[in-house]
């Protein structure tokens, strides 16, 4: 069903119809579909924001929030930045949208402890966004994977929003990390990821002669 809807919307966005405000109802419905079915279509969502930009009277705060939250689920990709650039300053100052931007700033700076705290204090922000918490955990896992060689299991739990017990062990297993006897987790050998690169510079005689002549 998701692929069928994606194809229908793709046809809708071809040519000049992409900027037809009469398509907004269908496109907004597609945003809701993405939210409740853990689907994603960046191109369609950018088209919605562009139509809001051209037709401010049609702007829907809830839809904009949903688009931004779906974009956050794609971190570390730059989807959120692309979406935010299409939202004018006045709408970014809207208290509801500002809540999402605040969360984005915490996540983009990898301040995961504060991000989870913020979500716990304002849980309604992501109500109905299917898969949001796991998407953020995947992003946090990506950051852990490129940052740490060994890390305390308790710290991983904190960075992943408080996963505990078997749920945490299963998450660690899926990431191909190894739980050690001392309570630490081996993530990866960062030194193995460092690759040396030989840089060879070639300077011909004519180039050197020109430099010497200019210096005289």
Automatic annotation (TrEMBL):
<comment type="similarity">
    <text>Belongs to the eIF-3 subunit K family.</text>
</comment>
<dbReference type="InterPro" id="IPR000717">
    <property type="entry name" value="PCI_dom"/>
</dbReference>
<comment type="subunit">
    <text>Component of the eukaryotic translation initiation factor 3 (eIF-3) complex.</text>
</comment>
<protein>
    <recommendedName>
        <fullName>Eukaryotic translation initiation factor 3 subunit K</fullName>
    </recommendedName>
</protein>
<dbReference type="InterPro" id="IPR009374">
    <property type="entry name" value="eIF3k"/>
</dbReference>
<dbReference type="InterPro" id="IPR036388">
    <property type="entry name" value="WH-like_DNA-bd_sf"/>
</dbReference>
<dbReference type="GO" id="GO:0003723">
    <property type="term" value="F:RNA binding"/>
</dbReference>
<dbReference type="InterPro" id="IPR036390">
    <property type="entry name" value="WH_DNA-bd_sf"/>
</dbReference>
<dbReference type="InterPro" id="IPR033464">
    <property type="entry name" value="CSN8_PSD8_EIF3K"/>
</dbReference>
<dbReference type="InterPro" id="IPR016024">
    <property type="entry name" value="ARM-type_fold"/>
</dbReference>
<dbReference type="GO" id="GO:0043022">
    <property type="term" value="F:ribosome binding"/>
</dbReference>
<comment type="function">
    <text>Component of the eukaryotic translation initiation factor 3 (eIF-3) complex, which is involved in protein synthesis of a specialized repertoire of mRNAs and, together with other initiation factors, stimulates binding of mRNA and methionyl-tRNAi to the 40S ribosome. The eIF-3 complex specifically targets and initiates translation of a subset of mRNAs involved in cell proliferation.</text>
</comment>
<dbReference type="InterPro" id="IPR016020">
    <property type="entry name" value="Transl_init_fac_sub12_N_euk"/>
</dbReference>
<dbReference type="GO" id="GO:0005852">
    <property type="term" value="C:eukaryotic translation initiation factor 3 complex"/>
</dbReference>
<dbReference type="GO" id="GO:0003743">
    <property type="term" value="F:translation initiation factor activity"/>
</dbReference>
<dbReference type="Pfam" id="PF10075">
    <property type="entry name" value="CSN8_PSD8_EIF3K"/>
</dbReference>
<comment type="function">
    <text>Component of the eukaryotic translation initiation factor 3 (eIF-3) complex, which is required for several steps in the initiation of protein synthesis. The eIF-3 complex associates with the 40S ribosome and facilitates the recruitment of eIF-1, eIF-1A, eIF-2:GTP:methionyl-tRNAi and eIF-5 to form the 43S pre-initiation complex (43S PIC). The eIF-3 complex stimulates mRNA recruitment to the 43S PIC and scanning of the mRNA for AUG recognition.</text>
</comment>
<dbReference type="GO" id="GO:0006446">
    <property type="term" value="P:regulation of translational initiation"/>
</dbReference>
<dbReference type="GO" id="GO:0016282">
    <property type="term" value="C:eukaryotic 43S preinitiation complex"/>
</dbReference>
<feature type="domain" description="PCI">
    <location>
        <begin position="40"/>
        <end position="202"/>
    </location>
</feature>
<dbReference type="GO" id="GO:0033290">
    <property type="term" value="C:eukaryotic 48S preinitiation complex"/>
</dbReference>
<keyword id="KW-0963">Cytoplasm</keyword>
<keyword id="KW-0648">Protein biosynthesis</keyword>
<keyword id="KW-0396">Initiation factor</keyword>
<dbReference type="GO" id="GO:0001732">
    <property type="term" value="P:formation of cytoplasmic translation initiation complex"/>
</dbReference>
